[in-house]
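Running co-folding for NAP.
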Amino acid sequence: MSARVAILGATGYGGGELLRLLIRHPNVRVVAATSRSAAGTPVSRVHRNLEGVTDLAFSAPSDAELMASCDVIVGALPHGASAEVLAPFVRRGMPVVDLSGDYRLRSLEDYRTWYRRDHPHPELIPRAVYGCPELFAEAIRGASLVASPGCFATAMNLALLPAARAGLLAGGRATVVAMTASSGSGAEARAGTHHPTRAETLRPYKVLSHQHVPEVVQCVGDAGAPIAGIDFTPISAPIVRGILAVVQAPLSAPADDEALATVYSEFYADAPFARVVSHREPECQSIAGTNYFEVRARSTADGNLHVVTAIDNLVKGGAGQAVQSLNLMLGLDQSAGLDWPGTWP
Ligand SMILES: NC(=O)c1ccc[n+]([C@@H]2O[C@H](COP(=O)([O-])OP(=O)(O)OC[C@H]3O[C@@H](n4cnc5c(N)ncnc54)[C@H](OP(=O)(O)O)[C@@H]3O)[C@@H](O)[C@H]2O)c1
């Protein structure tokens, strides 16, 4: 039997990816794609890749209607709004996956500092499991609320977790430079994200203040290796999909490239979407549109871990990872509906 899923915020880029992935999912039926602005409009008018694929239209059901018609809720809403909109479903104990940052941080103080607002439902935070399947698959299986990681956070987590678990991080500060695609900023064009202002340039933004930092510190700490912080420089790049991250952190003991490759391969041995590459560099084209990620770890001459990761921000960094968690929550294989390669070139 198929699980009935509602996608909230379905006109956005995250919502569109959820529709793309879930409409063809073998064990799921999308019964609602909500929107405040486009109720009654066929989803294919907004997400043109779905023309001829689905007759579904956006809708604006009440909470009671959603509770009666769905088994699972997936939210693709902006932070702040997301915590409010999802709260009634979380309180009722319905399985919920949240793509926003609202339920990722256990510390209310961190939420206030990094998201510059007070959390509207602190009482619900303890119910949340951080949706990183490479670390928390068992907890996600039993969760009713999964806080799916941020896109940059995913790239950083995947770079640091194997070393953290192996006890190879010395506990100092990590340094990250990561380039991201324009779709990471959502469907609405703003001055800093609109095509004419970013298509021909590389622009750092939110330098040392990006809100994904504290969830990575939290996640790496959960893996057993507290780090002191992350000096993170995000850069907006003139591509539509993808994040390429370069991550450095002090090693606790010398490790050569071969030893690190073994550590990373062993950590990701059962991770269906991991590509630990040592014969080439990770890059965005080879994972675009897919839930795969690429990672390459090395050591620098002065004893730092150096890792390059590549993900698709909308898939492994967003909707795909959320579907991976949804699969685990539903007792399915975590690859269900996700197990296909992308295109090349
Ligand atoms: N883009 C990415 O690469 C990415 C990756 C990982 C996680 N995320 C997270 O996923 C969430 C969605 O991101 P996105 O890129 O899809 O954003 P988006 O393109 O801006 O879409 C968000 C959608 O939410 C709806 N919405 C906006 N404000 C709302 C409110 N106050 N109440 C209810 N609905 C509201 C809007 O639809 P209507 O106006 O039609 O109602 C909008 O289309 C964000 O929290 C984001 O941080 C994004």
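Result summary
The chain has two domains: 3-149+317-329, 151-312.
The CA atoms of residues 25 and 343 lie 19 Å apart.
Job closed.
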